[in-house]
Every structure is written in structure tokens, then in C-alpha cells.
Write a structure and sequence with these properties.
Blueprint (H helix, E strand, L loop, with lengths): L16 H9 E3 L4 H8 L7 E4 L5 E3 L4 E3 L5 E4 L6 E7 L4 E4 L3 E4 L5
Antiparallel strand pairs: 1-4, 2-3, 2-8, 4-5, 5-6, 6-7
Length: about 110
């Protein structure tokens, strides 16, 4: 299987620095588990959910977390679609989960 990016040769020393920087900035959803746990008063990393774009079931901890922005963006590990966005301001915290068909919180 060829692991090179489109448009680059396998030994290309001038790989895309922007793509490399983005790849280095991506964490898994466990990185934002504490913040989400505070918002939802629950352990969030094990909470399963379904991606609204592709239907993949994933635990929040397995989502790809982008944290070097004005907010936090959690993306589906299968399709890359945005599942959850969180922005914290001085006045409020905004959570946009419209990219999740659902998140399932167990009882007890």
C-alpha cells in the first residue's frame, strides 16, 4: 500500500509542510475528555455516538481532536466529518453537536 500523499514522490523531501503541521496538531478525543466531562457532568471519553455524516459508531475518546483553534473540533475518525465543536468564551461555553446523530449516555 502506497502511503504517499497525492502529488508527492515516495522520497520527496519537500513534503507538504501544512499537511504535516495539521497532522502533528491532531490529538484523539481523550485530550478533551476533562473539558467535556465538566460540561456534561459525565465521563465522556467512553460515551458512544454515531457520526451523522457516515454513520460510524465511535467513542468520544476515539474522535480526532483539533485543539489549536479558537475552539475545539472533534472529527469522525472514519470520514473526517465534524461531530462536535466546543467554544469557550468569558461569558459562556457553546457546544455544537449537530454532527453527531446521537451520543448515548448510559444510566447507572
Amino acid at each position: 500500500m502506497d502511503e504517499t500523499r497525492p502529488g508527492s514522490a515516495p522520497d520527496d523531501a519537500s513534503a507538504d509542510p501544512v499537511a504535516d503541521a495539521v497532522d502533528d496538531a491532531v490529538l484523539d478525543g481523550n485530550a478533551v475528555g476533562g473539558m467535556l466531562g465538566t460540561l456534561f457532568a459525565a465521563e465522556m471519553t467512553a460515551v458512544p455516538g454515531k457520526c451523522a455524516q457516515c454513520g460510524t459508531m465511535s467513542a468520544v475518546g476515539s474522535l480526532r481532536a483539533y485543539v489549536r483553534a479558537p475552539g475545539t473540533v472533534l472529527r469522525c475518525p472514519a470520514c473526517g466529518g465534524v461531530v462536535i465543536r466546543v467554544v469557550e468564551t468569558a461569558e459562556a461555553t457553546y457546544v455544537d453537536a449537530r454532527g453527531a446523530a446521537y451520543l448515548r449516555f448510559g444510566r447507572g
